[in-house]
Every structure is written in C-alpha cells, then in structure tokens.
Design goal:
Shape: globular
Radius of gyration: 12 Å
Mean pLDDT: 92
Order of helices and strands: HEEEHEH
Largest sheet: 4 strands, mixed
Amino acid sequence: MNEAEVVRRILKTLNALPGVYCLRTHGSSFQQKGTPDIIGCAHGHFFAIEAKKTAKEKPSPAQVYNLKKFQAAGGRVFISHDPRAREVVEWIKTLSA
C-alpha cells in the first residue's frame, strides 16, 4: 500500500465521523513545500495530518516546520503511521473532549 492509499483511507474514515470534515492537499509547484497531507476540522478544532506508510518513515524537515507552525497557531497536528486509520480515529476523538 502506498502513501496515497493511506491518505484515501484516512479521509474516508474521518469524513464518515459526525462533526468531522477534512480534505487532501495535493503537492505541486504552486503549494508550499511540506504542506500536510490532510487538513480539516473536528468538533470546532482545526487539524493537520501528515500520513506515513510505516513508523519507519519520518516527516521531512519542511513537514515538521509546517506542523509546528499550525500547532503554534492553535491547530492540532498528528503524524499517522497506521494504514488502517485506527490511530487517527482515536486521536480525533480526543478533539471532542
């Protein structure tokens, strides 16, 4: 399974949850380097998710920079290593608490 499929699964899973809406960003020369794979809102909280196929994969320095900037601005950030999207669902549930 490639990273694009992981992102599709996360999107499908999260958008099926009540109070959650998210979308995929598409990297291109017109987009800032390191933009997270998914941005969205859950129960009034903005979030950004960087998806990785396995725990061995780490975000690039540009990805880390952008996640830190979102966090500093009050957003919630998450790096997902679960192709089945279970861990991200558990994390999203904490945003409604």
